[in-house]
Amino acid sequence: MKTVRIIPRLDIKGPNLVKGIHLEGLRVLGKPSDFAKYYYENGADELMFMDVVASLYERNSLHSIISETAKSIFIPITVGGGLRSISDIKEVLRAGADKVCLNTAAINNPKLIKDATRMFGSSTIVVAIEAIKENNGSYLAYTDNGREHTGLDVFEWAQRLDEMGVGELVVTSVDKEGTGEGFDLDLVAKIGSLVSVPVIAHGGAGRKEHIPEIIKQGKADAVALGSLLHYHFIKNNVSVHAAEEGNIEFLSQKRNFHTFEPCSLSEIKSYLVGNQIECRI
Amino acid sequence: MQNIKDVMKNIVIVDYHLGNLFSVKQACDTIGINARVSSSKVDIEDADALILPGVGAFIEAMQNLEQLGLIDPLKKSVQQGKPLFGVCLGLQLLFTRSEEFGSGLGLDLISGTIKKFPPTSAQGSKVKVPQIAWNTIYRDTQNWQNSPLFDVPENEFMYFVHSYFVEPKDSSCVLTKTNYEGLEYCSSVLQDNIFATQFHPEKSAEKGLAIYKNWASNNNLI
To answer: What is the chain B residue with the closest CA to A195?
Structure first.
C-alpha cells in the first residue's frame, strides 16, 4: 500500500503564524500553537514550520514554538528557515524537530547537505526547492522566499539533491503559492519522475479538488497546505489571538478569502478516500 | 504522588549519538515512564528496562555502540531477561547483519538480515525510498493479546521512515507485517523480552503513545 501525507504548513514570523502570496506580503493569522494543536487533533500526518524571516533574533522565538509544540504533539515535525550550519540543525532537533528543511544553505553550501545526512541520517534532511517558471518555460530555483535568483535549473538541482542523499524534497511553486489557483502539476510531476525520494508538493491549493490532481497527475507523495487549512481554522474559530505585532489588518477586517474554498483536514481526507487515494483517517 | 516502587523503576533510553531521542523521551514523560537518556555502560547495566531508538545508518550505529562499549552490556541485559524496546534503527540493530554497504554485523539477538527496499515494485512501478509515510500494521502468525499491541486495532496506521527492512530467519518472532508498494515485510517483532517496531510509536499520535504505555505496563514498569 502507499498512502499520501497531508501536511499543514505553518509559516512563522516572530511569534506569529503568517501567510503571504507568492511567499510575500505576510499577514498575521494567529498563534502558531493554536493552529498546530487543532491540526494535530484533526488528523494532520505531520506539521511543517517554516521561519519565513529567519533573523538571528527571531530564532529564539521559533525554538520556543517548536519546543512548546513538541511537548504535546506526537506526529513528525519538520522545521525550516534560515538553518545554515550543523549547529543550527542540532539546535532545532534538540528543540523537538524530527526533520529539518534546508534551502538557501543547501544551494550555497552543498557540503552541508552531505555532512548533515551523514550525521543525522538522510531521512532527517529535507530540502525545499522554490521554483519560478521563466518566460521561456524553464524553471529556476530561488532562495529567500523566492526573492534571490540562483540561476540553477530546478530539475538538475533536484537530481543532484537526490544523488547527495537527502531524504525528501518540498517543491514550492512560487508562482502559485498563496494564490489558490491550484498546484503546478507539470513542475511536481517532472521532479517526481527524476528523483527516487518522496516529493512534497506545495503552493497553490485553493480547494479540495486540487489535491487529488496533484497526487494523481503530479505524482506527489505528500501535500503541504497553508492557506486552505488556515482560512478554514480562522473561519471556524472566532477567538484567534495573534500577538500584537505585525500586519493584523487581515484578521480584523471582514474575512474574504477570494479564490479559496477553505476546508478541514477531515473533509480533505474523506475526499481523497472517495477518489481512491489512500491516506490515514 | 508516585509511590516508591514507581520511582525506583529505572528505564534507560540508550543514546549512541545517532538520531533524535527527544521525541522518545517526550513520549515517555507524557505517559509516566520514568526514563532517562544515557550512553553510560553502568546505567545500562543498572537499568530495569531499555529503550533502543535510532535514526540513521546501521554501520555507523554499530560503530558508535562499540566505541561507547555498549555492545556487551546490551546483549547481557537482554540475555538476563531485561525488557528491551527497539524503535526503527533500534529494531534493525537487533538482527544478525545488514546488507547496507556490504555486510555490517548487528547485535544478533534475533537471527535475520536487513535489506533495502528495491527501487521498483513487482509490478514495475517506481518505489520511493525512503518510505516516509503512515502505513498500516496487521497480524502475522503471532497473537497480539499478550503484546503491547493488545488494544491496537488491526490495520491501524503508524508512522514509518526507513529505507531498509528486517527479514527474520524464523518468522515466529514477527508480530506485525506491513505492505509497502506490494512488498510485504516484518514491521514489528516480539521475542521473549524483546519488543521492537520499525515504525515510530512516539510519532504515531495517541495510538502510538498507547504502545509505549502498554509495553511499560506489561513489564511492570509503571
So the answer is: B128
Contact between B106 and B92 under an 8 Å Cβ cutoff? The reply is yes
In the numeric block, the cell 504502545 is attached to: B211
CA neighbours closer than 13 Å in the CB half-sphere of residue B136: 17
Cβ-based neighbours of B138, under 8 Å, separated by 6 or more = B154, B155, B176, B177, B178
Interval B161-206: pLDDT, tens:
999 999 999 999 999 999 999 999 999 999 999 999 999 999 999 9
Beta carbons of B37 and B44 less than 8 angstroms apart: no
**pLDDT above 90 (res B3):** no
Q: Which residues of B touch A216 (CB under 8 A)?
A: none
pLDDT band, residue A254 (cuts 50/70/90): very low
- Please give the ipTM for the structure prediction: 0.93
- Domains of chain A, each with CATH number or no CATH: 5-274 (3.20.20.70)
For residue B97, what is the domain's CATH number?
A: 3.40.50.880
Question: Which tens digits make up the pLDDT trace of B80-108?
Answer: 999 999 999 999 999 999 987 666 899 99
What is the identity of the amino acid at B44?
Answer: I
B130·A4 Cβ contact <8 A? no
Q: Find which of A123, A166, A279 to mutate to test the B interface (most B CBs within 10 Å of its CB).
A: A123
Interface test with A, best of B29, B159, B183, B184 (most A CBs within 10 A): B159
For residue B129, the enclosing domain spans 4-218
Q: Is B193 on the interface with A (CB under 8 A)?
A: no
**Minimal-distance CA residue of chain A relative to B121:** A1
* Total domains in the fold of chain B: 1
Q: Which among A94, A196, A198 is the nearest to B132, CB-wise? A: A198
